[in-house]
Amino acid sequence: MIKIEYPPYQPKIKKDPAFNGRQADREFIFDEFRKRWVVLTPEEWVRQNFLQYLTQVKKYPASLIAVEKEIKTGELKNRFDIVVYDGNTKPWMMVECKEMNVALDRTVLDQLLRYNINLQVPYLVITNGSYCMAFTFKNDKLTEIDTLPSF
Fold first, then answer.
1. Assigned domain for 29 exists
2. What pLDDT does residue 18 have?
3. How far apart are CA 126 and CA 135, in angstroms?
4. Is the entire prediction scored with pTM above 0.70?
5. 23 lies in a domain?
6. Has residue 136 been placed in a domain?
């Protein structure tokens, strides 16, 4: 597993007062990639911080990162968490984010592998905020790697 050392990050967070029976004081975080406020769930916290890690620490270009886009796997519609594109705008890495108390196990990896049926990215990453696991395909075999690739 890869330990993640997050960069300093001061997200924009706001509270939403109760309205028409909605839960009071829900917190929202501004997603710089989607250019909108989203509910601050434990998984969203992981996603936003991992995005900062990718752009600030790993120096992946923000312009080549997509967040929460729909993909079809067979007849099902799913949403990937993060896809990083290469310089030719071809999907290069896919990231599945889970909240911190979720174990990075085969179930999480299998979810990402199902999403990858359509995208066929060379790098797959699963993270729970504290750690991540990265994989690549070598000779049609999924192999764990010990660091995220350089862009």
1. no
2. 58
3. 9
4. yes
5. no
6. yes
